[in-house]
Amino acid sequence: MRLLKRIDFWVSLLIVSITVVSAIGRVLGWYSLGFVVGAFRASHWLGIIGSTYIAIATPAFSLLKRRFGARYEAFVNFHVVGNLTAVLLLTIHFTSQVTRSVTNYPELGTGLALYIVMLFLVASGFPYRFHFLPRFNIGTNRLVHVGMALSFYLLIGIHVLHGLGLL
Question: Which residues contact 27 (CB under 8 A, 6 or more apart)?
Fold first, then answer.
């Protein structure tokens, strides 16, 4: 029951809820981000912002928690809230891609794989952070979470190279 008294749990749950509603809203056509801003569509910019944040903030979190261990709680809360917000942006990007018209439908290969890995990151991060699965082996969960993060980095590199036409 202590979990229900933690503000970071409720903030995380709120961000996940907003993400789900945003995804449903995009699929149902409640909003569109198909307009162009500079070189890309608005939804694509959200994907770029979200993935860039994760690409920079996650290793920064790892380094900071080792260097300044006394501030671990602040760093982990920043990591969780920041990355869940990035997942929100990436979800809007992904749902915008999969709801495009048939004549303009994207190739989903690396994007779909990236989104699945990202969902596994969130799914493994919640019990890792909030310890709400009592019989769950935290060491195994850490291995899965870190492994998914490494997979995310590999796939985002391939996705970007593919998007630029280099693969």
Answer: 95, 98, 99
Partner residues linked to 8 by β-bridges: none
Write down the mean pLDDT value for the chain: 85
The span from the CA of 79 to the CA of 92, in Å, is: 20
pLDDT digits (tens, 9 = 90+) for 15-64: 999 999 999 999 998 988 878 888 888 988 999 999 899 889 888 888 88
Contacts 24+ apart (CB under 8 A), 58-62: 58/83, 58/149
Residue type (1 letter), 91? T
| pTM for the full predicted model | 0.86
In a 10 Å sphere around its CB, with 0-12 CB exposed, 13-18 middle and 19+ buried, how is residue 28 labelled? Answer: exposed
C-alpha separations of 148 from 117, 152, 164 in Å = 6, 6, 24
Q: Are 112 and 42 in contact (CB under 8 A)?
A: no
* Rounded Cα–Cα distance for residues 145 and 139 (Å): 10
Tokens encoding 23: 């995804």
CA–CA gap between residue 94 and residue 97 (Å, rounded):
5
Please check whether residue 43 is in contact with residue 34, taking contact to mean a CB–CB distance below 8 angstroms: yes
Beta strands in the chain (DSSP E): 36-37, 40-41
